[in-house]
Amino acid sequence: MSGPESRPGAESVRAAIEGTPARRRVAIGSSVGATIETYDFIGFGTAAALYFNDAFFPSGNPLSGTLLSFATLGVGFAVRPLGGILGGHLGDRIGRKPVLVGSLLVMGIATVLIGALPTYSQVGIWAGILLVAVRVVQGLAFGAEWGGAILMTFEHAPWRKRGLYTGLTQAGFPVGLLLANAAFLISVPLGAQWAWRLPFLLSAILIAVGIVIRLKVEESPAFEELKAEGEVAKNPLLEVLRTDWPNILRAFCLRVTETAGYALSITFVLSYLKSEDLAGRSTTLFALMLAAGLGIIATTLWGALTDRIGRRPVYLLGTAIALAWGVPLFLLLNTGRATAIVLAFIVSYAVCQNSLAGVQGAWFSELFHARTRTSGASLSYQLSAVVSGFTPLIATALFSAAGWIGPALLFSAFGLLGLIATLLTRETWGRAERAEVDALQRSLATPAANPVSS
């Protein structure tokens, strides 16, 4: 079976079809953790676009300050593959749960430290250096997070609802985005210093809640089965690179469209609206919060849709829309009208980004075997972060050289890359896979004819 778990043992067929008793608790726990990690990591992007160029870098040249701020943002994305490698290795060697708890704790400590950092006016160049150092720690933790959270959910979920369950976990990201930007919106009246410090300091409360929830989550049944059978990979990274590198490459290209598209249409656009005086901070944050609120529902629904029609059709739709959206996006932004800007954020996020993110949890997991799944999915997922992390920097340079058409065409180019990658990636939950699971489910309903259920 290519889509669902490849050739599960007879004793695990019923559990795979129905899911484990803890499936809902695991999905919610993973989603809560993803919410907190996103609040921490994406909050940095909002602060980089709106505040960090003034707070941590020389103020003589605003464009240079913006470039340095986005470069710092990119550093966190650049080290995410290292976090993915570390988290993937540990997840495949010692289990998914320890990675979930450890990554959340490290991310929380780093985020609170950002809120306490001195500024350029206080310590000069050391402000930027300290910011980069803490951002590196953030990137490592966030890189380790995704694979553990998604795969715990995926491996506890029933076969026919893996898109829904992993979509629910992916929906933790727009929830984190919503909370982060709500914190920044509320903190605007507090003045230049506390407007960016408070959201990071408030993360301490979320981290405490998240750790308690994740400590109560059960380990993945797929990993427990591998451990019981002595099939745990000794070097999962080398194994997946040797045996499954084409899937890593395909998933990387699929992911770039989503994550780099977000970095351009959200992170860069926040700075673009500010620099071109097209909208105030309150307007842009409201637009982003509304898009994130809709994205919570959209991500889950996009994932659920893949359970009905397959992973590839939904991804084809999302990448095709992204390909066509680059120029219309900036035409709407350039009107300077609040309604047009809100619409631009909604389409960019709830449609272009969420239609892809909602699919990735199930599709990427199904592309890899259980013994190397965390390493394979995490590596491909996080490698794309290197591209997306520096996308706002590249978009800023393109805008400086060619005007708004430069970033617009870059966005469409990411859509084209994803569209091609989708056509080259196998369907893992097509009609054949769904029919096979239906047949297994029917066989389980007739105990006398099926020894598996006895």
Automatic annotation (TrEMBL):
GO terms for molecular function: transmembrane transporter activity. InterPro entries: MFS, MFS_dom, MFS_trans_sf. It is found in: Cell membrane. Pfam families: MFS_1 (PF07690). Its main location: membrane. Keywords: Cell membrane, Membrane, Transmembrane, Transmembrane helix, Transport. It is a multi-pass membrane protein. The chain crosses the membrane at residues 67-87, 99-117, 123-143, 164-188, 194-213, 252-273, 285-305, 314-333, 339-359, 379-398, 404-424. Residues 26-430 form the Major facilitator superfamily (MFS) profile domain. GO terms for cellular component: plasma membrane. This is MHS family MFS transporter.
